[in-house]
Structure formats: C-alpha cells, structure tokens
Amino acid sequence: MSTVKAFKKPFPHRHLLGIDGLSRDDVYMILDLAEQYAAKNREPDKKHPILKGRTLINLFYENSTRTRTSFELAGKRMGADVINMSISSSSVKKGETLIDTAMTLNAMHPDFIAVRHPESGAVHLLARKVECAVINGGDGCHAHPTQALLDAMTIRQHKGKIEGLTIAICGDILHSRVARSNMQLLTLMGAKVRIIAPPTLMPACPEQYGVEVFYDMRKGLKGCDIIMMLRLQLERMEGNFIPSLREYFHFYGLDEEKLSHAKPDALIMHPGPINRGVEIDSKLADDINRSAILQQVEMGVAVRQAVLELLSHNI
Ligand code: CP
Fold first, then answer.
1. Mean residue pLDDT across the chain
2. For a Cys-Cys bond, which of 20, 175, 182, 226 suits 233, CB 3.0-4.6 Å?
3. Is any atom of ligand 1 closer than 6 Å to the C-beta of 312?
4. Over the range 203-234, which residues count as b (16 or more CB within 10 Å of their CB) and which as e?
5. What is the pTM of this model?
C-alpha cells in the first residue's frame, strides 16, 4: 500500500491562476507530490483524507468533462466536501455577475474554488474578491495551468525528463489556453518547444513565447520527441479560419505519414476532447503504444490533488 508523504517545504502561492509566477522548483514540487497521488489512485482504497472539513466549489461557466470531474474526484478522495455549482440552474441565469457570484460563494467560507470561464482574465478578477484559494480550470484563450502540469507529468513519466526534449504543439494555437500554458511551462522546464499551425490559427508575434514557429507539419514534426495535438476551438471562432475540416485534416491532422517525420518513439498527446478525423486519425489516438491521451486524463486527478494539498497549507 502506498502512502502520500506530507510536503515540508512551503508552496509560495495562494492561488493557481496560471503558469506565470511558478518557478521550476514549484513545478517539481507539484509533479513529485502528484506522483504519490497517482500511485495511491491505482489502489483499491484511494482515500487520503487530509482535506477533511475543507470545502471545494467547482464553478464552471463552460462545459467540461475531464477538468470538472477530476477536481471533484480529487477533492472527494482527499476527504473534502465538494459542491458542483450548476450554472444553468444558478442565479447566473437571472443576471448575477461573476463578482456578485464570487462574493456570494465567499460568504459561505469555501476553502477552494476551481473556476472555468469563457472570458480571459475572469478567474484573476474573481481571485481578487474571495478569501479562499482559486484554481484556474481554464479561462478563455488565456490559461489552463493544471492541464499543462498534467501534460508535463505525463511527458516526464514517458521520457524521464522534460529538459532537452523537442516538443511540438500543433493545431489551433490561436484559441488554445492549453497551448499558452504549455508553451510557458515546457519552456520554463527547459524543453525546446515548436508550434505548428496554419497562418490563420497562429497568434500574432508567436516568437514572443520563446518557441520555434512552423506552418508545415512535416517540417515542424521532424525529430520531435512529443507531439501535442490541439482541438479546433470552433466555439471561439467567429468567421472562417479554415477552408474545411477535410482540408484541415489533410494539412494539419496527425496521420501515420506525418507522424513518420517525428522520432520513432515520439509520444502522441491531446488534451481532449478529440475531434476524430479532424485533428488526429482515430487509429493513432487509440494506439496504446503511441498515444498517452488517457494517461493524461489519469494524471489530471493526481495533479489536481497535489495542487489542492499544496494550496491548503496557505489558507
Ligand atoms: N482538457 C480539458 O480541459 O478537457 P475538459 O474540457 O473536458 O475539461
């Protein structure tokens, strides 16, 4: 039976709103603790009730399967009371603002609020209005820090390190909070990061992120250790960014031929949900020898447990 050992070193953050502000040591602290939770989560008894008496509120203004469920599982496995706010049946539907919602929830003394919101920056605004720890579960096109952390954990498990790896992030970079948080985290940890996208889905001045920029999949994938595919964020697109889904797959979808340009042992990742046959060939997505997509989901619970534990020491 594995045990989760308490961390003695203080985690110097009150909230987790993004990757900015985290040091390499902070990231290692989260990943090392998450490894212990990952081991515990594979046992019949998954409980490690160090958050008994604490309250976690999941406040998701956008749909989610992986992030919301894993925060809920993380909180419950750690003994916290977990409330999933249903936005569709809340007073948000009567016009209550984000700030009023935040102050209302704050009055009930939660210890953590995990928030997803369609507007970039909304989670930072909310964090200024509450006394509890706030965790960003994804805000607009801006940040999704726990996704980047679980991606880093998955990469480290496969390759034994992050530093020195060549990692390609491919697809709809423009609208992707996952891409932004991963560019920050993976460059912080010493990886060589490439981004590959059609010109219409590339952000302005992409070099500002400290990455190499490619518009051609085959050139961008050459010699890569990790291929991180992204979902086309159709819900954030106003107008046409691609000629057709078929054409997008032809030029930017990951298939066997394009994959052959990466290293023979290159690992395929995708944050999900997947659009099969649009950004990735279905057979590759399901190939357990090449794809880490479900392992990313598994690590999501462990990373969120580690974040909850570390933040709990500061509230
Ligand atoms: N990767 C991710 O954020 O998935 P969900 O939208 O299902 O939470």
1. 95
2. 175
3. no
4. beebeebebebbeebeebbeebbbbbbbbbbe
5. 0.97
